């Protein structure tokens, strides 16, 4: 019994040390566009609060992150409602669900859990970079007549 407690304590300490979330600040233009996206703000708020006391607190956090990440598909701002953003959200959800799964195993595979934290960080950064990329692309002015050429190239509009 004593060794089970020590193992759990060791696992908790390793997860606590590895639970490092590093979010990159968004560009001011992107930030202004996502301010109204409540689900994104809720997810960031949840992910920024690190559990402190027990392994159970980390398990609750993983469950909460799963719910918040799944909500990211709701109310996506029009500019970001693209396949590239939705794909990154899906990848993020998958990583968070995997974290939730692993942290509830007995014994908890601490190396897997801390590895997933790093992967979740990467997914969030990837999503943020894609948002910035979209904003930058949309700021490039179109050439005169460019929109007509784009319409002509659209094969779904072609008359058959």
Descriptive notes:
By secondary structure, the chain is mainly alpha-helical. The chain has helices at 2-18, 28-34, 38-48, 55-70, 83-103, 110-138, 146-153. α1 runs parallel beside α6, α3 packs antiparallel against α4 (55-70) and α5 runs antiparallel to α6. The chain is elongated, with a radius of gyration of 21 Å. The model has no long low-confidence stretch (mean pLDDT 88).
Features:
160 residues; mainly alpha; 7 helices; 0% strand
- CA-to-CA gap between the ends? 76 Å
How many strands? 0
Main structural class: mainly alpha
Cα shape: elongated
**Biggest beta-sheet profile:** none
Roughly how many Å is the radius of gyration?
Answer: 21 Å
Q: In percent, how helical is the residue content?
A: 55-70%
Chain-averaged pLDDT: 88
**What is the H/E string?**
HHHHHHH
The fraction of residues in strands falls at under 5%
The parts where pLDDT drops under 50 for at least 5 residues are none
Q: Count up the helices.
A: 7
């Amino acid at each position: 019994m004593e060794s089970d407690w020590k193992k759990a304590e060791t696992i908790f300490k390793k997860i606590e040390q590895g639970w490092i979330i590093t979010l990159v600040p968004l560009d001011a233009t992107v930030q202004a566009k996502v301010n109204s996206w409540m689900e994104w703000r809720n997810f960031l708020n949840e992910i920024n609060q690190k559990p402190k006391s027990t392994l159970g607190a980390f398990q609750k956090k993983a469950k909460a992150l799963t719910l918040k990440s799944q909500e990211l598909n709701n109310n996506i701002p029009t500019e970001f409602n693209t396949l590239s953003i939705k794909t990154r959200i899906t990848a993020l959800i998958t990583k968070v669900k995997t974290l939730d799964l692993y942290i509830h195993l007995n014994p908890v595979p601490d190396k897997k859990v801390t590895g997933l934290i790093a992967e979740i960080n990467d997914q969030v950064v990837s999503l943020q970079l894609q948002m910035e990329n979209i904003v930058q692309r949309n700021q490039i002015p179109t050439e005169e007549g460019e929109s007509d050429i784009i319409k002509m190239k659209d094969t779904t509009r072609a008359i058959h």
